[in-house]
Amino acid sequence: MLNKEALISRSGMQEGPPMPANPPKPTKYKQKSNFSKGFAEKAKEYAAPIAGIGATALSYAALRGRGAKGARKKLTSVIQPEKGAKPGRVRKFIDKMIYGADDIHYTPEGMARPGRAKKIEGTVLHTTSDSPHFVKGDRNVGDITKNRAAKRMESDKATEARYIKKNAPEFAVPSKSLGSAHKGRKGLERLHKKHKNKGYVIKPRDGFGSGVGGGGFVNSSDIEKYLAGKRLPAGKKSKIENIMKNPKGQLLQEDLKIKKGLVTRQSREMRVHAVGGKVIPGASGTRAGNLEDLGRTREAEKYFQKFLDDLPAAEKKKMENVFWAPDIAMTKKGPKIIELNAGDAASGLIDPRYLTKKKGVGELAAGGAAIRKNMAIYRALTGRDHALVAGGKALGAGGAVAYGTSEAGQKKIKKGKKKVKKAYKEYKKEGKLPIPSLPSRQSN
Fold this sequence. Notes:
By secondary structure, this protein is an alpha+beta fold. It has a domain at 174-254. Helix content is 44%, strand content 13%. It is built from 15 helices and 18 strands. The strands form five sheets. Strands 2-1-4-6 form a four-stranded parallel β-sheet. A four-stranded antiparallel β-sheet has the order 7-10-8-9. Strands 14-11-16-17 form a four-stranded antiparallel β-sheet. A hairpin with a 2-residue loop joins β12 (274-275) and β13. The termini are far apart.
């Protein structure tokens, strides 16, 4: 029988290395499937948009306060549609966006009052004195149907002046209601002789318009010219004749010395909005409506907030749901309240449709400012951002996250980090950047 060596010799084969005592088990090579490769590549490719969409959704939900409880978080605005208009779904959606509301309730002009107002959940913002007869909410901002003081102020500037003098005298502008003693030319002459040294304006007690920003009221200079027989614009002349005919419907107010600004006409008078004893941040601006003057806006807001804070406790409670839209003159001696405009939320500077009727550049700018102010009012009344604002912010956040997750964004971030580290090392080396020393771990 041939042994191992003989067999190797006959076959011409060479003896290989000896086998190990415990040979390793053969491993099974696993090749990645085409599906796995494709999925990994696609996941990497879509990571940025998926992250962006997720961040947008989360941001929107957080800004809108989806998880918050309470019906008062819903805001319904009651507005009067244009004469003869019958707003449909599209018009209603647009009005929700531009008036800053979750829902819109229309009360057409001349509409018969129902026997009982419709009850809805949440806060209702009344923009007309008649709207509380049609709809009411859990809270009714601008509803002055049972507030006698606010109702009187809404229709009479003289009552406003008396209210300020009684409740916050330091904010009062010297004012005087005209009477029968000022009737006719002789009455006008006596009035002018008594007040001409300080200067004054005369305005209708129940009228609209501005005597500072708009320049529409008669002032002491106009009276001087009229009495001297000098020529006046037809509009001013007819107003003076109306004053002599009906002095009881007029209010005399000290002519305030206006502080000149960058754009004198627009920023000489500001319009502030407030409710619930608080000025609404972001809802103020110039009386012209189409120009911003942030410095004077903040000054006017601070001034009117002090007025609200100084009101007696009983008045604060009584005026809790009154919507304030005061006109504040920016004088050389500081801000002064010209008119309070207390009542419903009918401030002309927050009505985008009214402001954009003429379609001019100035009107469109004023309309845009009105939308921004409505968004601020929405936030003040609900504690959250309006859908339009939340959507814009959420898209911005989502875009930032998507870019940061993308390949281009990651490269930019890495490049930025390197620059920061390099700069930090240089500053540390040169001793220009103060670096606080870490506390020692050794015990004293």
